[in-house]
């Protein structure tokens, strides 16, 4: 296998975060599931995973830089029991015939015990801590969960409000069914367990994180579970009142406009908003009085002759 630094495309002075980012980028690019037509993809993925295993572990990285282990993480000749330059000397058969010189413990001037020697070799603790000398090795052999993967899913305003099942296609061609809950808000993230990148060393798969992007509606607006709608009415409908038909989330309904409704009047239709498990919103209709697009002679003549008594809207608004 090539040099781990070369495989990950980082320098020897790279920080742990730079190494992590480089590995993630390559893992996404070279994962076998994303390269079904490349027979060498699995080998490439194993190589970068092995390189990351060495460089992501500060102790392994230090030993690799010192030449104590090779690019596969194996001990190089001369480093097996030659710790700190104090190699063992054979006196006969078996361990009883060897004289192990473990040197002095750093900063103490005291001789290392055999336990301390092996503890340091394998990244464990000393005898006083009571920690198993092989605990670090066991930690490194743990199964690692796969990376989470992130996707954006565009959803219509009505589908987010009412809820709907949608399909999303992953880069590897896999189709996932995503259940959009009623009342889903913009940028809400849905988690699909086990649908992310495969785990390493037999570990569990990561999750797929689906960010919902709710598209704006041409006339509905939302605030919490309430829906807002602007409805134009004619001058006659505003003055005399009457029934009109308006859209709601679930279809068209009849709405009674009270006589003498002015622009800005708000009518509330209870229970016609967004329904979730904990709350049901309302539909709030704002009346907008509209005049004819083309001049109406009869209306113009009526207005010329009409003399409203004791009515000054600007005075009522405090603008005089």
How do you describe this structure in short?
With 320 residues, this protein is α+β, with helices and mostly antiparallel strands.
- Which CATH architecture of the largest domain? Orthogonal Bundle
Question: Can you tell me the overall shape?
Answer: elongated
**Radius of gyration, Cα only, in angstroms?**
37 Å
Instruction: Indicate the CATH class of the largest domain.
Output: Mainly Alpha
* Overall number of domains: 3
Describe the protein in words.
With 320 residues, this protein is α+β, with helices and mostly antiparallel strands. It has three domains: 4-140, DnaJ domain (Helix Hairpins); 149-214, HSP40/DNAj peptide-binding domain, CATH 2.60.260; 220-316, HSP40/DNAj peptide-binding domain, CATH 2.60.260. It is built from ten helices and 13 strands.
What features would you highlight for this structure?
320 residues, alpha+beta, Helix Hairpins, three-stranded mixed sheet, 10 helices, elongated
Write the SSE topology.
Blueprint: H1 4-8, H2 16-30, H3 41-55, H4 58-65, E1 89-90, E2 98-99, H5 114-121, H6 135-140, E3 149-155, H7 157-162, E4 164-169, E5 175-180, E6 189-192, E7 208-214, E8 220-223, E9 226-234, H8 235-240, E10 242-248, E11 251-257, E12 266-269, E13 283-290, H9 297-305, H10 313-316
Parallel strand pairs: 3-7, 9-13
Antiparallel strand pairs: 1-2, 4-5, 6-7, 8-9, 10-11, 12-13
Helix pairs in contact: 2-3
